[in-house]
Amino acid sequence: xxxxxxxxxxxxxxxxxxxxxxxxxxxxxxxxxxxxxxxxxxxxxxxxxxxxxxxxxxxxxxxxxxxxxxxxxxxxxxxxxxxxxxxxxxxxxxxxxxxxxxxxxxxxxxxxxxxxxxx
Length: 119
Description:
single chain; mainly alpha; 2 domains; two-stranded parallel sheet; 5 helices; globular; membrane
């Protein structure tokens, strides 16, 4: 990326794109209701917590997602780490649980590298 930063709006757009790709097969199979008053019920019927969907998912995926580890990164303090690199390094090799990295506001000038032994 030649030192280009990913900033707030780009991260938000990336999250939206990934969410669409993950949920598109579910949404396409159940069309969005025309009546706006039914949309919230439709959404809640499709998107359920892992515990409720557990019987339809791969058992390893269910196990990995039951209690995800959340790590907070804050440049000025207040998080567990102040760089994204240190946060990624804190994840053990061969990790089998979901890890959510919550990145606080600011400009992080780092080259992010996630080794293949840190799934």
